[in-house]
Amino acid sequence: TIGNSEGNFFMNGAIDNVSISTGVGSGKSAVLSELDALNADTKLTSITLNGNTVLPITWAQYQADTAVLSKLPAGSLSVTGAPVSAAAALQADGHVALFSVSDSSANVAANLDALNGDSKLSGVTLTDSNPVSITWAQYGTDTSIIGKLAAGALSVTGAPVSGAAHGNKSP
């Protein structure tokens, strides 16, 4: 288990190259609780997470702890609360398994097509009370992202009468 004493031991120069191997459970908690200390450790070369462990971190942690996060294996991060503007970078980052965005309805609407293609996107939280305004055409093509919006968070314009009357797309 990684603890504060181990982190200080590594950082004070007693060891040149450090590799940490941890499992799920307490090892996962230890890595999360020591992210800042591990981020400052210039001797750390890698972290191995056993058992397909995915570490849940916030967008703020993702930005602040880049050195230690780069030492993690591929697909080991789940990032929450990222702005829409960060979606493409999170999608491209091999360390990220999943991410969620938290942004205004206007920003989500403006980037709907791009977000729809992000296979790692797990959810969308709107930071305002406005619905995401989209066209009927977007309603038919951006089904993946639409499915990640909360009920009532969508406003569709330009729907044909047949689609509006039945609550779904016309054939």
Topology:
Layout: H1 4-11, E1 18-22, H2 26-33, H3 35-40, E2 44-49, E3 55-58, H4 59-64, H5 66-69, E4 77-82, H6 87-92, E5 96-103, H7 105-110, H8 112-116, E6 121-126, E7 132-135, H9 136-141, H10 143-146, E8 154-157, H11 161-166
Parallel strand pairs: 1-2, 3-4, 4-5, 5-6, 7-8
Outline the structure in words.
The chain is α/β, with parallel strands linked by helices. 38% of the residues lie in helices and 25% in strands. The chain contains 11 helices and 8 strands. It has helices at 4-11, 26-33, 35-40, 59-64, 66-69, 87-92, 105-110, 112-116, 136-141, 143-146, 161-166; strands spanning 18-22, 44-49, 55-58, 77-82, 96-103, 121-126, 132-135, 154-157. Strands 3-4-5-6 form a 4-stranded parallel beta sheet. The protein has a two-stranded parallel sheet with strand order 1-2. The longest helix has 8 residues, at 4-11. It is elongated. Mean pLDDT is 82; it is low at 1-15.
| Quaternary organisation | single chain
**Range of helix content:** 25-40%
The main pleated sheet reads as: 4 strands, parallel
Distance between the termini: 58 Å
Mean of the pLDDT scores? 82
Supply the number of helical segments: 11
Helix vs. strand class: alpha/beta
Estimated radius of gyration:
21 Å
Main sheet strand line-up: 3-4-5-6
* Percent of residues in β-strands: 25-35%
Query: Spans with pLDDT under 50 lasting ≥5 residues?
Result: 1-15
The total of beta strands comes to: 8
Coarse shape: elongated
| H and E order | HEHHEEHHEHEHHEEHHEH
Please tag this protein with its features:
171 residues; two-stranded parallel ribbon; 38% helix; 25% strand; elongated
